[in-house]
Specification:
Blueprint (H helix, E strand, L loop, with lengths): L2 H14 L8 E4 L7 H13 L5 H4 L4 E4 L4 H12 L7 H8 L8 H30 L2 H55 L11
Parallel strand pairs: 1-2
Helix pairs in contact: 1-6, 6-7
Length: 202
């Protein structure tokens, strides 16, 4: 579990919400490439550590091994066959709570990560500027190049934040349009059922 994997898993949790985690199966693979004892120890760490899978396992998620065999694949599928569909947390936030996507847990998590990177680069740039004040001419030129590079990184992250807000707003509109279309199609089907429609009324 690298830093990126941990961040992605945190985003996954924000999207799903705690109530749906009982429908989640976490699958580990590549067991043929590791010593069984080492693999067992790594799996135990993933299950027992709060920074990994322990919090979701405590809320009903399960772990399974895929040994690159048909038997293990079928066993994993059987774990999810009897799951009852549940709304994701982000669906509840968008539909029931009518939040903007940027205000959802997932949107805030993504925005937080971008802001962390911006703050990090700004601090690095401040340190470079301090070094420039004490450097000789040759070193100063090198630091100026590094500073410009850092400014470019900061601009990139700031543009990412702006683009995220724009993309989230577009996605919200697309999502709302899709929901309305589903509602209209559902009503048309029910109305066309004639006398049976009382059992399937809008």
């Amino acid at each position: 579990m690298s830093g990126i994997s941990t961040k992605n898993f945190n985003m996954f949790r924000k999207l799903c919400g705690d109530s749906t985690l009982r429908n989640v199966v976490i699958v580990t693979n590549m067991w043929e490439e590791v010593d069984p004892q080492v693999g067992d120890a790594r799996e135990a760490e993933l299950m027992k550590e709060d920074i990994f899978f322990k919090p979701v396992l405590e809320k009903g998620a399960r772990m399974a091994r895929h040994n690159n065999t048909l038997t293990s694949a079928e066993a994993i599928i059987r774990l999810v066959l009897d799951n009852h569909p549940l709304p994701l947390r982000i669906q509840e936030e968008l539909v029931n709570e009518r939040k903007d996507i940027a205000d959802t847990g997932a949107g805030q998590e993504l925005n937080r990560e971008l802001n962390v990177q911006i703050r990090k680069h700004r601090e690095e740039m401040r340190m470079l500027e301090e070094e420039m004040q004490q450097a000789n001419e040759e070193t100063r030129r090198e630091l100026e190049i590094e500073t410009k590079k850092m400014q470019g990184e900061i601009s990139k992250y700031e543009n990412d934040v702006k683009r995220l807000a724009s993309d989230l707003e577009s996605e919200k509109l697309r999502f709302a349009t899709a929901i309305e279309g589903m509602k209209r199609r559902r009503c048309r089907v029910k109305i066309s059922l004639g006398p049976i429609r009382m059992g399937f009324g809008c």
